[in-house]
């Protein structure tokens, strides 16, 4: 066994449950479907302070982003207006550590869709 | 935070009626999260852009709520339908009550 | 060893090295990861190069005798010396140095004599890695490479010259600077400076060359030096570019890549329609291409040691066949091109006295390549421990840097060949045992993550004064155990602070003397370097 036993760069469980709470608040505990929402994020963040995120959910009225490994999970909510050309938006977010980014779409029929993407935040510094 | 806040947007100059176009926006803002401490160990108060809206001829395209996890110099990309010639209006709302606006005209042929 | 005499008996000729049965209608010439090595050098290939996940046991993760067995390479043969480790010092005595861009020029001229419109492609890591390259901010390499008349290039370490200098040099290039994955960071748009591809009309057909720069530049290298740019793998954009060039009439799609081998192999299964990937960054050299999906992947080594020639038969809208050869540049066998030799000497002339100053000698083989350590890096770690008065040393797991064989002088040039960079300051700081573990786990996952898209293509950070166990098959956070302070034999205490010296930090505010000065001072004090060939401070399992 190891001389050093440590938690790694992965998220603390407390943060993850904060995210669950925040999602429950948004959805009222409704069931979360999958497949009608796409969340695009880099596998590895080039810079944890500005990570490009794209969400797309045809038929959504709004999409909310959460960062499950940040001290505060809420990131942003996109509310789509009558002249929105698609239910698609991109932004850049701060990630404190390697974690799951979660997107929840509220659909026109009142149901919810969820997508998750893991983004690695690394110290880096080597190369070929 | 009123000083040095500069909005920039990319909107095509022309479009066909009913066309869907891509819009990109940036605003220079430090987005102080309220999580950081200064050299004396005091928490630096939160100061962020908390809302962004894009409208066309008075109708809404997108209305975004921002939290401190949005990066410095908030960036958004989204799509809009352009039914007729007119003007996009972009508005950013600062925690300190300031409101920043910029607009772009688009010609429908 | 006994192979040295065998080596000497196998007389090698330039004609043999260049021999090629011209094929098809188009020729590609690939050279990559030169790391500013203008002159012939020694370069020992790795004996430890572990593959993980689906690449366990697959080339290029096969080394030494196993590698020779796999390719039917005879022990003691020129191919043994060029392509694999094992009895390196003795074979080096027999076969001599490799590389030298004046010899490379001879080879390229010979190929062009055969096929005048051959396409010469440089895979990047060209403007980095030597004293003269550092002092001239890449100008020496630009001058010499321009004389070779490449048709296109892509990038990695070049960006560590800083974006202003990169822009200045790229704007001066008489050939294409490609990178479909080099984007403007502010608006997330392609850049004008680095177009995604270039179309060539050769042999009655159209060939598209798409550039792929190193995807993880701002992570593996200091992002603050080139904040205007974003990179990434960008599979979707690569696929879009393949469709675009096909629609524009390309009958053959070539990717000039600095992804690293395993990333290329995966990309070939994700992106359809690529015929050929010319592979760089991970410094692998294979005598024949690897087929991944429908794509041929050719890795062409490093440090000017190899040139790959690929002849293609392109007809009726597609690539029908190929013939290739990885040409080892044996510097005693290939006649230097006189014009190029003069041009190289002209670049070096202002610096000759500094370059050639003898700092010490080595009675041991000094090499770098290997997943966990090499004798050059052991020496650098020793220098950090001693000169910076530290308990633990950390040295980056880079794959560039020539070898020295027993009996050689160590010149200032040799030290710069394994240390030169634009962020070479040797820091001295305190780190807790806990943070040291986080560092080792983090780097290990960038090398041994089973998904190649998480691999950045270097080797494990080298440690001095610190031993550990690593189970490469475990996930991040669970690979590293038994961390030990070697000076006392005690287990590393997560809560205690340790004095750590290291170099090549990606942080902007790093302070300390330059690493080459630290190493020079250490070697000067030693006089003659004797390396321990069996550094066993890292115990590896899960292979
Ligand atoms: Mn390289
Ligand atoms: Mn590289």
UniProtKB/TrEMBL annotation, chain B:
Task: Identify the stretch annotated as signal peptide in this record.
Answer: none
Tell me which residues make up the Sulphur oxidation protein SoxZ domain.
Answer: 10-104
Gene3D superfamilies from the UniProt entry: Immunoglobulins
What's the name of the protein?
Thiosulfate oxidation carrier complex protein SoxZ
